[in-house]
Specification:
α3 packs antiparallel against α10 and α7 runs parallel beside α8. The termini are far apart. The radius of gyration is 19 Å and the shape is globular. The chain has an eight-stranded parallel β-barrel, surrounded by five helices. It is 39% helix and 14% strand. The chain folds into two domains: 276 residues, Aldolase class I (TIM Barrel), CATH 3.20.20; 36 residues. α7 links the parallel β6 and β7. With 317 residues, it is α/β, with parallel strands linked by helices.
């Protein structure tokens, strides 16, 4: 990864956009995407100038604890060779977490391999995540370390974590607003802190849309020097979803020409997207974002409890 990609301050580096429609959107439909869907998505993203497509997870099949996990839950070189035999400018990414990773050294990177391996971890699994970054780096892959739930990490613990990550070979270190809790001023502060503490590394940002701030927060992150940002078509993703890719691309290209391949893909594949009842903004998810809680707590009961609490405190008429 070049110094320009790793970042030199706002206005001095190319911002890389990563589409996570398949990997993150898979939480909404159990990763039931056809090979044609993924192939045509790749082609649309390439024509739209999107830099990376994240096609799923690369954990071991056994990690999912189900009899027959979908192919995009345990991406292999053989799968990529069959679905994406000819790659163009858009690079391919996969995600791994710190459990269920195959033992031993990864295969050396080849033309059929993913280009970028993103290692996701919570704070308590940081050391294991750094170990995975080292393994994939030594096998020739671009690497990122995606630090989850940044909004709940105490300042002192975050400082220690960033000091550890600074000594790792990760090319990119992501601020992940897992709960959709951060407001723009908080994004400004945390991205600035990552950049200050991680010289020579690119800083990335993944925003959630619990409070309808994913796009605004992504733009603020870029203003503050983040050079990798995530988005997905229609914002599809776990819980409230992500920054909508089509909005980000529309802002990136004032002519809007690069929007056409994405809109054409959406028109052709509208029926392949899961219903909004399975993902997207809702009052329960808004509250989990506001309260800095995991989206699994987003229930109607939470809304009733919150309304009762605010009435009791006299803050709701």
């Amino acid at each position: 990864m070049s110094p320009e990609e790793k970042g030199g301050g706002p206005g001095h580096a190319t911002v890389r956009v990563l589409d996570c429609t398949v990997r993150d959107g898979g939480f909404a439909n159990g990763w039931c995407f056809s090979a044609d869907f993924v192939r045509e998505l790749y082609e649309a993203l390439d024509r739209a100038g999107v830099d990376y497509v994240e096609v799923g997870f690369a954990n071991a099949r056994e990690r999912w604890h189900v009899a027959d996990p979908q192919p995009w839950q345990w991406v292999t070189e053989e799968l990529l060779r069959g679905v994406l035999p000819e790659r163009r400018r858009t690079r391919v990414a996969v995600m791994v977490d710190t459990w269920g990773v195959p033992d031993g050294a990864p295969r050396p990177r080849s033309r059929a391999s993913p280009d970028l391996v993103r290692v996701a971890c919570r704070l308590d699994a940081l050391e294991a995540a750094v170990g995975l970054v080292v393994r994939f780096h030594e096998a020739g892959y671009e690497t990122s370390l995606n630090l989850l739930a940044v909004s709940e990490i105490p300042p002192g613990d975050l400082s220690a974590a960033l000091a550890r990550v600074a000594r790792s070979p990760a090319d990119v270190v992501y601020v992940v607003d897992s709960y959709g809790h951060l407001e723009p001023q908080a994004v400004r502060a945390v991205v600035g802190r990552f950049r200050e503490t991680l010289p020579g590394k690119a800083v990335g940002f993944h925003g959630r849309n619990n409070r309808q701030l994913a796009l605004a927060n992504t733009l603020v992150a870029v203003e503050c020097g983040a050079t990798f940002v995530d988005a997905s078509l229609l914002g599809m993703g776990r819980g409230a979803g992500n920054c909508p890719l089509e909005l980000l691309v529309g802002l990136r290209d004032p002519s809007h020409r690069t929007l056409v391949p994405l809109l054409r893909f959406l028109a052709l594949h509208e029926a392949d997207f899961p219903p909004r009842s399975r993902w997207g903004y809702s009052l329960p998810l808004m509250l989990t974002g506001l309260l800095n809680r995991h989206p699994r707590e987003a229930t109607e009961e939470l809304v009733r409890e919150f309304v009762g609490l605010t009435v009791a405190r006299g803050s709701l008429a």
